[in-house]
Write a structure and sequence with these properties.
transferase, Rossmann fold, 7-stranded mixed beta sheet, alpha/beta, 7 strands, globular
Length: 196
């Protein structure tokens, strides 16, 4: 069972998604990830988007640490149910409706955030987590990253979690790699919008 590491809801246990369809981020990776994000000062008051959310633990951790708004996006019914359970628990701890859950396909949800005709975003995010299932192909990931790049605030950070054996994601033209770090079987990639 995972837990919230730090912040207002620190120590709160989170429900996990049953079965092996999801791949929870280990506490070791989570601690390293959030240590880096805190050092970059990207969590406080951030609008956060957690895609392929699983149990929602990454987005929920940001809520506990002061994010303004967190949206968990998940398609699998069991995972959606767990996200809703965990979101309710964290919102109660925060005494505020910071976290919401959206059931749907990631690409469809992302498309709803920008106007297809003008390509202008209707909604933007400061921090985006992507922990897609390993079967997602590099090409599918590239398409999703392109959509993510259209809904980012100016100083946003994107975190992609993949198998350490996976190649570097194909970044869209308006997104550039900041850093990457390997933790055993997991590699984290960090990117930000290209500054014009």
């Amino acid at each position: 069972m995972s837990r919230i590491i730090s912040g207002i809801a620190g120590g709160t246990s989170l429900k996990s998604v049953p079965g092996d369809a999801t791949r929870p981020t280990t506490d070791r990776v989570k601690e390293a990830l959030f240590s880096r994000l805190e050092s970059w000062n990207v969590i406080s008051s951030a609008r956060v988007l957690d895609l392929f959310a699983g149990s929602g633990s990454l987005g929920l951790e940001t809520a506990s640490r002061g994010a303004r708004q967190v949206l968990l996006v998940e398609l699998a019914p069991k995972a959606v149910s767990v996200c809703q359970h965990n979101a309710t628990k964290i919102n109660e701890a925060l005494k505020s409706e910071v976290v919401s859950v959206h059931r749907g396909k990631v690409d469809t949800v992302l498309s709803s955030f920008f106007d297809e005709e003008t390509n202008a975003p209707k909604r933007t995010f400061d921090l985006v987590f992507m922990d897609p299932p390993y079967p997602l192909t590099d090409q599918e990931l590239a398409v999703t990253l392109d959509k993510v790049s259209r809904v980012l605030a100016e100083d946003a950070t994107v975190v992609v979690e993949r198998s350490s054996r996976s190649p570097e994601p194909s970044w869209p033209a308006n997104l550039e790699k900041l850093a990457d770090k390997k933790y055993g079987e997991t590699r984290l990639w960090f990117a930000e919008p290209v500054q014009c």
